[in-house]
């Protein structure tokens, strides 16, 4: 397969955000310093960029915690925490777990539901009343404890489309082939993103979904700036964001391997 060849030989982790120079092999970089979210940008629906309403995104015990204990009514205050710079070709690794009680005033579909957005528009281009970023989402779900399958690592497409199984797929969400993960267990997610080409979702080491040609289009996103939503435009890069939509969730060990220098040499 294509992915191992791209990431072979990447053996060390680094806490510096500088790209490798010369012929050095790319290194894993920690996007989260374990202490604070100073390298991240908050955007929550109904609020201006930078307003971390209700202390939604907080850091404790080297974990980014998403919480709603200061909310009252959820009021569709969907939020996202964006890393400060965009990426194009990369391998992203992270761990997540669902915890605590779902916010009962959030939409029902948000129960045990979160996500990692990528190829996202810059949050600073989002009006105050835009609900979702134009982006691709690696949707994260947990089992409902009812014995029914509920895969995680799915693809959802707010304001976007992708090519799946050889054709432009109109579905807002495409299910992965992952197992169902119940309870408050840590799950390891990975994304291998090759610009506007192939995208791969990996859960606990298993490849669960692949698609290509991410592009602007489709619906779901509301109150966006029309100048930003150029339907049909391929998405070759964008911001990475952690989602808040009503279910408490934890994120940790967020690392990236920047593959852009290797891609530029091809």
* Total tally of structural domains: 1
Task: Give the C-level CATH assignment.
Answer: Mainly Beta
The total of beta strands comes to 18
Residue-averaged pLDDT: 92
Query: Order of SSEs, N→C?
Result: HEEEEEEEEEEEEEEEEEEH
What best-fitting shape do the alpha-carbon axes yield?
Answer: globular
Cα distance spanning the termini = 17 Å
**CATH architectural type:** Sandwich
Biggest pleated sheet: 11 strands, mixed
Protein name: DUF1080 domain-containing protein
Organism: Chitinophaga hostae
Pfam families: 3keto-disac_hyd
Domain 3-keto-alpha-glucoside-1,2-lyase/3-keto-2-hydroxy-glucal hydratase: 27-256
List the helices and strands and how they pair.
Blueprint lengths: L1 H6 L5 E2 L13 E3 L9 E5 L12 E4 L2 E4 L12 E5 L5 E10 L14 E8 L15 E6 L12 E3 L3 E5 L2 E3 L3 E2 L12 E8 L3 E6 L2 E11 L22 E6 L4 E10 L1 H6 L1
Parallel strand pairs: 1-2
Antiparallel strand pairs: 2-18, 3-6, 4-5, 5-18, 6-17, 7-14, 7-18, 8-9, 8-17, 9-10, 10-13, 11-12, 11-16, 14-15, 15-16
């Amino acid at each position: 397969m294509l992915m191992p060849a791209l990431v072979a030989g990447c053996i060390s982790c680094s806490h510096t955000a500088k790209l490798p120079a010369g012929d050095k092999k790319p290194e894993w970089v920690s996007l989260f310093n374990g202490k604070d979210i100073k390298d991240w940008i908050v955007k929550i629906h109904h609020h201006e960029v930078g307003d971390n309403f209700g202390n939604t995104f907080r850091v404790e015990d080297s974990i980014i915690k998403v919480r709603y204990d200061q909310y009252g009514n959820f009021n569709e205050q969907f939020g996202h925490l964006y890393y400060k710079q965009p990426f194009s070709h990369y391998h992203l690794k992270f761990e997540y777990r669902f915890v605590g009680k779902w916010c009962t005033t959030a939409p029902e579909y948000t129960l045990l539901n979160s996500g990692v957005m990528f190829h996202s528009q810059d949050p600073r281009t989002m009006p105050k009343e835009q609900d979702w970023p134009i982006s691709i989402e690696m949707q994260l779900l947990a089992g409902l404890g009812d014995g029914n399958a509920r895969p995680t690592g799915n693809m959802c497409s707010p304001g976007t489309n992708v090519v799946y199984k050889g054709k432009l797929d109109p579905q807002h969400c495409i299910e992965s082939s992952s197992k169902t993960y119940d309870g408050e267990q840590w799950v390891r997610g990975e994304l291998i993103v090759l610009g506007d080409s192939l995208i791969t979702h990996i859960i606990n080491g298993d490849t669960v979904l692949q698609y290509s040609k991410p592009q602007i289009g489709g619906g779901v996103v509301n109150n966006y700036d029309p100048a930003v939503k150029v339907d049909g435009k391929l998405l070759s890069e964008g911001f990475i964001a952690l989602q808040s939509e009503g279910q408490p969730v934890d994120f940790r060990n967020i690392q990236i391997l920047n593959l852009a220098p290797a891609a530029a040499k091809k």
